[in-house]
Specification:
alpha/beta; 9-stranded mixed beta sheet; 13 helices; globular
């Protein structure tokens, strides 16, 4: 009987080993660096100028971290993290996908990325347990300048410390581990500021990260991007109502914030898109020449006013742009290119060919130096906002990449099973 059992175990081990080899072969068919460019008309339904976000609010659940030390040295108390989850955590707790939002986003990912996240989408909520948390310093539920400082009983305002991308990722990772009971994240995905977070997830040591997706972002904020951020901050500073960041809630620096938003909206798009949408059209040709308003002027003014109607906080905007400027995956870790090369987590990197804010050269750099990466470039006129607006065209690459990661995960499980069988066989052989 022992001999029969041993033979059966040998046969099972051989079968498992063959399955592992087949699966490994399938996973290895993905090239280390694959450059693809897709050309087609924009997916935009209104001339390519629709807003990148839908209605925004601070809805979600809250996890509170009693004490959190930020990189600058300050210790924040009772730090709220606002988050939302979608889908179901599986029994092995290994199907969690963390979606990282951009500058003015919130935790309601299905409202602003519906073509990417949801049932049947690339990030399929019928398959994955999706988590999206509001970033540190925002005004959509997570601790920020609008939060009450427990030491003073008043809003933090200007006293809210400078925080970094690393701070946000560490805080979110702690929420995932301690609040949701998840020790392994299948994938971290995000665009723009969200892409910076996704890359930083590979460097934190709170939970294990299996894969990452970076869209329209680089490994560090460049002088160009810092300059664009500073222009927006200066617009806010110049508003007399700013008061150094400690302004009256009923009389905020709305005009400065509106101008900051207008600057951002120009940087998010491209010259061809603006020309196609507006040309030199004016709102009222019957008025004298000097009294006419170009349609593009009207559009930008509308966007500034709309941003204020979202009740976005000006000091939060200041701290968030400074947080983006802190982004440098190699800061304090060594040579930039060597640090990128040390990241062995597989990454999908996606760039938008017309992006003037985070040019494709930055995604090419990431893909060239990351230890394991795959690059796709979308030939779209949408500019930086293409990472949101072109989601239907980006989704197939994300879906295929995640499927490849899943295969590798199954390979590891099969190889672990083979190892256990071989150990059991060795034990039985010794007994015989």
């Amino acid at each position: 009987q022992a001999s029969i059992l041993c033979d059966a175990m040998h046969a099972t081990a051989r079968s498992a080993r063959r399955l592992a080899v087949i699966a490994r072969s399938a996973a290895n068919r993905q090239p280390k660096l694959a450059l693809r460019q897709l050309s087609s008309q924009s997916s935009g339904g209104d001339g390519g100028m629709q807003d990148e976000y839908a209605n925004m609010d601070d809805s979600g659940e809250t996890f509170v971290v009693p004490s959190f030390r930020v990189e600058a040295g300050h210790v924040l108390k009772d730090v709220a993290v606002r988050y939302q989850t979608f889908g179901t955590l599986n029994k092995n707790k290994n199907n969690t996908v963390v979606v990282c939002h951009a500058l003015t986003g919130n935790a309601a990912v299905q409202s602003w990325w519906p073509a990417m996240v949801g049932p049947g989408c690339a990030v399929d909520t019928d398959r994955y347990f999706v988590v999206c948390a509001n970033v540190l310093g925002s005004c959509y539920g997570t601790c920020g300048p609008t939060s009450i400082n427990p030491d003073t009983g008043r809003r933090y305002g200007s006293s809210f410390p400078h925080v970094t991308i690393r701070d946000t990722v560490r805080l979110h990772a702690q929420m995932v581990r301690d609040g949701l009971g998840v020790g392994e994240v299948f994938c971290a995905i995000g665009g723009s500021m969200g892409g910076m977070q996704a890359l930083e997830w590979a460097m934190q040591d709170v939970v294990n990260l299996r894969s990452g997706v970076v869209l329209a972002a680089g490994g560090r904020h460049t002088p160009w991007q810092i300059g664009v951020s500073e222009l927006q901050r200066q617009a806010i500073y110049a508003d007399p109502n700013y008061q150094g960041g400690d302004y009256n809630e009923q009389n905020p620096p709305a005009q400065g914030l509106a101008v900051a938003r207008q600057i951002a909206m120009v940087s998010y798009r491209t010259q061809p898109v603006y020309c196609d949408k507006f040309g030199r059209a004016v709102t009222d040709e019957t008025k004298p020449l000097g009294e006419r308003t170009f349609q593009v002027e009207q559009y930008l003014r509308y966007q500034g006013a709309k941003f204020n109607k979202r009740n976005f906080d000006a000091q939060s905007y200041v701290r968030l742009t400074q947080q983006m400027d802190s982004h440098d995956v190699a800061r304090g870790r060594g040579d930039y290119l060597k640090v990128l090369g040390s990241i062995r987590t597989p990454f999908l990197v996606v760039g938008i060919k017309s992006d003037v804010l985070y040019p494709v050269s930055e995604q090419e750099e990431l893909a060239s130096y990351l230890g394991r990466s795959e690059l796709h470039v979308i030939d779209s006129p949408e500019g930086h906002d293409g990472f949101l607006l072109e989601a239907p065209r980006i989704s197939p690459f994300v879906e295929r990449f995640l499927s490849g990661v899943a295969v590798e995960q199954e390979v590891r499980q099969l190889e672990a099973r083979v190892q256990r069988l071989e150990e059991a066989m060795a034990t039985n052989k010794a007994r015989l």
